[in-house]
Amino acid sequence: MTRRSCAIYATGIVCAHLLIVGIALVVAQVFQTMIHSRLKKEITLTEKSQMFESWKNPPPPVYMEYYFFNVTNSEVFLAGGKAAVKQIGPYTYREYRPRENVTFLENGTKLYALNPKTFVFVPEKSAGDPEVDIIRTVNIPFVAIMNELNSYSFILRTLVSIYMNSLGIEMFMSRTVHEVLWGFKDPLLSKVHSMKPDVDEYFGLMWKKNGTHEGEFVFHTGEENYMDYGKIDTWNGLREMSWWSSNRSNMINGTDGAVFHPLINRNELLYIFAADLCRSIHLAYVKDVEVKGIQAYRFAPPNDVLMSPKENPTNAGFCVPAGDCLGTGLLKVSVCREGAPIVVSFPHFYQADPMYINAIDGLSPNKEEHETYLDLQPTTGVPIRACKRAQLNIILKRVQGFPKTKYITETIFPIMFVNETATIDDDSASQMRTLLLIVTLVSNFPLLIVGLGIILLLVLVVLFCRNRQKKTVKDDTAYTQVSDKPDEPSETPASQPMRNGSYIAMSPVEAQKC
């Protein structure tokens, strides 16, 4: 057997083995299963102090952009006309949110943590100076007192109204952005504080929220089930709330939005518990996106999250008292936040009933600027970009005994909205791309084996064809015997010598003379 034949046989044997093994691995999905198992076990096998380091101190910077609705015609509104507002901002703050007091519980299956938040003003990302810029907005302490007295007698409401007029307190106030956001000593609350010390005499939308946390959380680590990774077990010791009017609405579902389980698919709903909204919300897949070279799935709250109970009966539990419901796009959170009748929506009443948008001049909702979404890397479940957008509103309506409300039309009045954004930093993005490349190569290793087998198959075909071709050429040019018969005398010229045996079929050529 020649070397060429050996090479052909060897190539064929290797090719057959590669194809058989590769196809078997592809069909059995051995490497994909191995990678998935590794991702699932990573939660339990990796040293926990390293695994939770980025969770404890998130590297991506988080920015809070505050936009305010400056009221331009408060007198017209009080006289019964339509209010007009003008958006100003953003006033941007860097948010620092480390996890503190991290403690593993129940053999590492659960994790206790606090999440204090600190805000630092970022002037280069802001539209103005919050300590200088003045806005005109609803006097929320005034509305809170008026709303609290709504259940009292008409005479008491009238007396309080007269007293408030004597102090020069109006339904609208003019304050700096810093005061409205971070707090000021309110004259009306100061009077109430003197009679009821438990009432704080300071008011601000973010009063006492700089450097504080939203409660005590206990999370699942995913050691028992990777699908539970990051899910909230208890919040402030509660597994369910009691503010809403149905068991389903009171459920604490999902994570806090910082982490999700690995191996996310497009068909599932992701749940987030938002402590500032006092409820859980779900996100649905929207589309595939790319962030800094990383492929991700975009999830966003679907329309049914804040849909009216008439259109989505499951939301009836968020009507408190039962049956007292607002329209599509609104959520009344005053049930869990004592005081003013606060309502939450998406900015500019995005996805809300058009009647709320048309009630105020100056609103223009659009998806690009006002949608809340979360971009997740599906293999790891890590958020790589997030935009959480929410608007704070207050219900203004007529209250008997308060003449200042005599002519106003009941309105869901916008105060401000916040755009909380975070995007993975460049170093983390580079590490993520490297990790995903390794995962991709390992997952597709069986395909590489099949591909190599196909290449060797092509080489085998080429070698086989060339070998056949050379054999054919050799057969065509080989020496052939003219006759096998024994020599017989023949009539030949006497001058030519006799030839013994067979001879090659070539015509004799006379010798050339010199």
UniProtKB/TrEMBL annotation:
<dbReference type="InterPro" id="IPR005429">
    <property type="entry name" value="LimpII"/>
</dbReference>
<keyword id="KW-0325">Glycoprotein</keyword>
<feature type="region of interest" description="Disordered">
    <location>
        <begin position="475"/>
        <end position="502"/>
    </location>
</feature>
<dbReference type="GO" id="GO:0006898">
    <property type="term" value="P:receptor-mediated endocytosis"/>
</dbReference>
<feature type="transmembrane region" description="Helical">
    <location>
        <begin position="7"/>
        <end position="31"/>
    </location>
</feature>
<keyword id="KW-0812">Transmembrane</keyword>
<dbReference type="GO" id="GO:0006622">
    <property type="term" value="P:protein targeting to lysosome"/>
</dbReference>
<dbReference type="GO" id="GO:0005044">
    <property type="term" value="F:scavenger receptor activity"/>
</dbReference>
<comment type="similarity">
    <text>Belongs to the CD36 family.</text>
</comment>
<dbReference type="Pfam" id="PF01130">
    <property type="entry name" value="CD36"/>
</dbReference>
<feature type="transmembrane region" description="Helical">
    <location>
        <begin position="435"/>
        <end position="464"/>
    </location>
</feature>
<dbReference type="InterPro" id="IPR002159">
    <property type="entry name" value="CD36_fam"/>
</dbReference>
<keyword id="KW-1133">Transmembrane helix</keyword>
<protein>
    <submittedName>
        <fullName>Lysosome membrane protein 2a isoform X2</fullName>
    </submittedName>
</protein>
<dbReference type="GO" id="GO:0016020">
    <property type="term" value="C:membrane"/>
</dbReference>
<dbReference type="GO" id="GO:0005764">
    <property type="term" value="C:lysosome"/>
</dbReference>
<keyword id="KW-0472">Membrane</keyword>
